[in-house]
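I am still getting used to backbone structure tokens and would like to learn alongside you. Please make up or recall a protein chain and show it to me in full. Would you write everything just below, so we can both look at the same thing?
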Amino acid sequence: MLDILVRAGSFVAVIILGYALKRIGFFQESDFTLLSKITIRITLSAAIVCNFASLEIDVSLLTLALLGLGGGLAYMALGYLTGLKKSREYRAFAVLNLSGYNIGCFTLPFAQSFLGPVGVITCSLFDVGNAVICLGGAFSVASMVKDGGRFSVKRIVSSLARSVPFVCYLIMVILNLTKIPVPGAVVSCARMIADANAFMAMLMIGVGFKLGGDRSQLGRIVKLLSIRYALAAVLALTFYHLLPFDLAIRQALVILVFSPIGSAVPGFTGEMKGDVGLSSALNSISIVISIVIIVTLLSVML
């Protein structure tokens, strides 16, 4: 348990380092965009290549992508129901800000350090379904709720096609299932880059950490986060006790459902002309809550 706490403490220390460096002016808020691009498009994508190349995927594990998609849809439905008696703007905000998991830049580094290759593959396959929600699905539905417009499949497909990690997921799954090996030189290069993923992801989170919004909206923050983590607890118990997967996969699923809100949500909220300050506060607070819960769960399960 001491080893788990030490390694988890290292993650938190890098987050604090990123936040402290921003506070003293070493990083500017605009640097978050650059760090995000490096992490998501380079180090995360390399981690995906590296870990998929080292394991053989059982076809039955593709159902994990459906679990990721289903979890996102459940949060969107809860967001809509939460705002039934509220304005369309409120419902749209809840649909968008309750949905999606920050897996690639948050949970995947934990899986890399604590759960090994099986945990990483579980996270990656789960994130394939989650990406449909995070990278366009939730935004399209929220926009439809707010404006009364039509659901845009084209927008979702376009967003996913531009997502480097999602494309890497698809390519590596196809190569794995068709038994086509990844060249050793590619894996070796990817492994060197992937080793930096955990550090870059945590540093990026620290630089992007922000608590804004009106303090009078504290009740709304508490309500939305209570709903999110209550459903996460139900999903965790269901996945751990009822799914017919190996223990390592079920352990990974437990920490996955406690992932924080997707990192792209504040950006999509701004594009929807919603309350970006409140969205950033929700996102940042969910990171703190998820760290505490995931570290506690790892200490109990491992």
